[in-house]
Every structure is written in C-alpha cells, then in structure tokens.
Amino acid sequence: MKFTEEHLWLRVEDGEDEITVGLSAYGAEQLGEAKFVELPDEGDVVSVDDPVVVIEADDDAVDILAPLDGEITEVNERLVEAPEVISEDPQGDGWLFKMSIDDLDALEELMDEAAYQKYIR
Q: Would you state the pLDDT for residue 17?
C-alpha cells in the first residue's frame, strides 16, 4: 500500500495497472463522520490533483484529488447510500474508487506505510 500527503491510500491490484484508492484511517479521523459523498463517473479521465470526489462531513466539505493520472474504472456506489462507511472502515469497505493508471512507476514516488506513519506524527 502507498500513501499520499493528502491522506489517501493506494493499493495496486495484483498483476494489473489498476489501483484502489481510499481515505487513510488518519484522514478519515481528521474529517469526522462522513454525511455525503459525490463520486466521479466510471470512464472519467483524470490528471493528478484533479478534484474527483467530494466528501461532506460534520461542518466541512473536502475535495479528494486524483493521486495519479489515469481513468476511473469503478466507484464504490455503496457510499452514496451509506457515506458513514468511509468513517467506519476507510481502509476497507470505505474505498472510494478504482482507476487504471498511466504510469506504474509513479507509485514509487509515494510514501510506504512506514514513511506515512512518520509523516502524520
């Protein structure tokens, strides 16, 4: 698993150029109870730092930015009806979207779990 400074986790799916993206446990804790989520459309082509997801929680709304260049291949539709899953299980059932990425090597520039734990301390 890799992590971004924006508190996203990225998991490479075995043998594929596809990643699953979600909010880290720390990011979910900082956000508070998710009340609403707006997801991208499957097939959307995104560039790094493009806003792709909006999460409203408590009194705040946060834009989640694309961690890498690629195409959205799947979204977690369950979150539309149950956005609280993001808060309850951010690194499991609360995943946000899957995307194919243009450059697998770009993952190497992101933090591993040890570096991320150091970053959030």
A: 79
Q: Does 76 reside within a domain?
A: yes
Nearest residue to 48 (alpha-carbon basis) of 94, 107, 96, 119: 107
| pLDDT given for residue 26 in this prediction | 96
Tokens representing 28 are 């979910």
DSSP per-residue letters across 14-34: TTSSEEEEEE-HHHHHHH-SE
* DSSP label of 110: S
Please report, as a single letter, which amino acid is at residue 71.
Answer: E
Whether 50 contacts 107, CB under 8 Å: no
Residue numbers of the chain with a pLDDT score lower than 50: none
- Comparing CA positions, the residue from 73, 85, 72 lying closest to residue 36 is 85
DSSP letter string, 52-102: EEEEEETTEEEEEEPSSSEEEEEE-THHHH-THHHHH-TTTTT--EEEEES
Looking up residue 83, the CATH number of its domain turns out to be: 2.40.50.100
